[in-house]
Target: PucR family transcriptional regulator
Amino acid sequence: MHSPSRHPQVSATARRLLADELEHLVAVSTERLIEVEPSYRSLGGETLAEQMRKNLSLTLARIAGDPPAPEFAHAAAETGEIRAAQQVDLLAVSRSFRIDLQLLWEAFLDDARRAGLETNADYLAGLLQVWEAVEANINEMTEAYRRTAERLRQQHTEIRTAAFQRLLDLGESRNPAGVAKQLTTLAFDPRRPFLVLVSDLREGDYSAISVVQTRLSRHGARSYFGWQQQSLVGLIQVPARDAAHRADDLAPLIAELGEHRTALAEVPTPGAVGRALHGARQLVTTATSPGVRQLRNHWLEAVTSAEPEITGALAEQVFAGFAELSDHVREELTRVITAFLSTNGTITEVSQAAFRHRNTVRARLAQIENLTGLSLAHPSDIALLALAFSAWRRDSTVHS
Model:
């Protein structure tokens, strides 16, 4: 920055202000700052005044052309570091230095009037030293502020990343106290339920996640996303007022993830994280098409995926007789079983869901009982049919 010739009267005024009027300048500057920037009120008057004192001392030393004392030589950079750590907005911090400029400009003009120099061209040109000194402070403060903010942001990111990974590990080990601690670090309320999300979105596809996180934030929901075991894993906590509809209302907010195989599982307490994660992962594994699925609506698929050997053996036993059927009959029976398991099981409900006549449904249900050896009047047999049917369809899809 170009420095104009230093006027001796400007330097003398700067030294006098530093020696005789510094405390008055500090008091006025602090008062003005708190008035125009309410965010400074919580910092404490004495602490704020102490930093003001250092900055004004540095500014006046620079105007005078004197080397600053060691205790305030780096005051501007120190201010940037402190305010960044306090999360004071950078524009507000810059405004505090502009207040210094205005205050000092007034003081120098008053001194010029007393000395009869208010029209002296050389003196007025020398007053540019006031502006340049404040600008030097602002530049040093801004650089330090941005450097510190970036360092703190990286530290914050590292802390949250570590907390997320630790939470997943503790969830798998069934450590609710540890999970609750990590949830707090991630700014979640461990006393309230939340959701676990698992998706086959490929690692590194940040654009979709960014859109989803922004939309969730706009609706007041907290979220955190990361990758584990080659899957996207997310935590979502909706506002307390929406807790009753937390899962049902999320689909539109995470629409981009609906283009992938995605599962949502509810977590009522921190101790349930591991089970929710496991169930959601199994649901993603068994899904045959993209879309958002809620675990509570797809338990059968998750269970059959989690226990493929046992459910596979059950399916082989229950549906052994289906192998000898024609494709048409097998398709008809599959339609009726699907309708039976998705309704309350009455002939009327099943016939409506399967688009078949009531008599046809009766005949098909009897045929199913005969082939499977299960009674559709017994709840335990219906449960076995549901598990076996889910595994049978899974295996049929795999081998088709």
